[in-house]
Design a protein that fits this description.
With 277 residues, the protein is an alpha/beta fold. The chain has 13 helices and 9 strands. The structure holds ligand C2E and calcium ion (3 copies). One calcium ion (CA) binds next to loops. This is EAL domain-containing protein.
């Protein structure tokens, strides 16, 4: 078995023989996790060129026996088993609550919150209705909420995806296209789907200090500007990357250079520190 060295992988190793029963085990544990409310949202700051916090990305964590399990270890199983639907609904509700809560604070009310939505989740018939119900129950300022989708939503049923995004936009959500450059998106897709914000994938940020990598990012940014899209660079880890990305015209920045995903209270403190000085 691989990765036996590190504790967390003992439960989640990927040997083919054990895969099915393993998935079954995780699925059962996830089901319990939903009931016991073991999920938590962490918030990673999104900064502008002047290092003011303009928003955050909500990232889910599973707190299992006091240990933090990252989403890469359970979201795929949740997607396969359909449990992503319940988990995803919780994410939307929690995100809406946060934005609603922040409205009564002079500084935090300016902060937007982007949450991730899985294709599997959007595929469900009742998705839009659930979003509507959550919004009408919690009544957040929807213009401070952003939905992060990946290019894969366009592959399955384009007409339906188009319709869905149109309705979400009408409700006030902004649409982020996540992991841009790793899939198959074409310029026509960006226009047709009325994307607001394009997230440049970390793999491009990783290469931006090389001559070739710089050309790629420049191309993406020039295209975004022509289409009136805002850009976010994700996975910014070094000051040099930040400098070059700024020079190339990126609007917003997210990455360990500024902060890791933070607990709610830590995030709120972080915002107050950076946005009041
Ligand atoms: P993503 O949407 O591309 O999220 C960005 C990931 O990059 C996050 O990992 C974040 O912690 C990490 N990251 C941010 N800055 C840096 C950096 O400077 N360096 C490095 N090495 N990594 C950085 P995380 O939180 O483990 O999430 C992984 C993926 O799990 C996400 O990728 C997203 O696809 C999925 N995910 C997370 N939360 C949710 C959720 O609530 N619902 C759904 N459906 N998927 C989620
Ligand atoms: Ca994301
Ligand atoms: Ca991303
Ligand atoms: Ca990514």
């Amino acid at each position: 078995a691989k990765h036996r060295g590190r504790n967390k992988y003992v439960i989640f190793n990927t040997d083919v023989k054990e895969k099915i029963s393993k998935e079954y085990t995780i699925k059962t544990m996830l089901q319990k996790a939903i009931e016991n409310e073991e999920f938590e949202l962490f918030y990673q700051p999104k900064l502008d060129r002047n290092k003011r916090v303009v928003g955050c990305e909500a990232l889910i964590r599973w707190i299992k026996d006091g240990k933090v399990v990252p989403p890469g270890e359970f979201i795929p199983v949740a997607e396969k088993s359909g449990l992503i639907y319940e988990i995803g609904k919780w994410v939307i509700e929690e995100s809406a609550k946060r934005v609603q809560e922040w409205e009564s604070d002079e500084i935090l009310k300016e902060i937007s919150l982007a949450f991730n939505v899985s294709v599997v989740q959007m595929r469900r018939e009742g998705f839009l209705n659930d979003v509507r119900n959550i919004i009408s129950k919690i009544k957040p300022n929807v213009s401070n909420l952003e939905i992060e989708i990946t290019e894969s939503v366009f592959i399955e049923n384009k007409q339906r995806a188009l319709h869905l995004l149109e309705l979400l936009k009408r409700m006030g959500f902004k649409i982020n296209l996540d992991d841009f450059g790793t899939g198959y998106s074409s310029i026509s897709v960006l226009k047709e789907f009325k994307i607001d914000i394009l997230k440049i994938d970390k793999s491009f940020v990783d290469e931006v200090l090389s001559k070739e990598g710089r050309v790629y990012v420049k191309t993406i940014i020039d295209m975004s500007k022509n289409l009136n899209l805002l850009t976010v660079a994700e996975g910014v880890e070094y000051q040099e990357q930040f400098e070059v990305l700024k020079e190339l015209g990126v609007d917003y920045f997210q990455g360990y250079l500024f902060a890791k995903p933070l607990k709610k209270e830590e995030f709120e403190e972080f915002v107050k520190k950076l946005n009041t000085s």
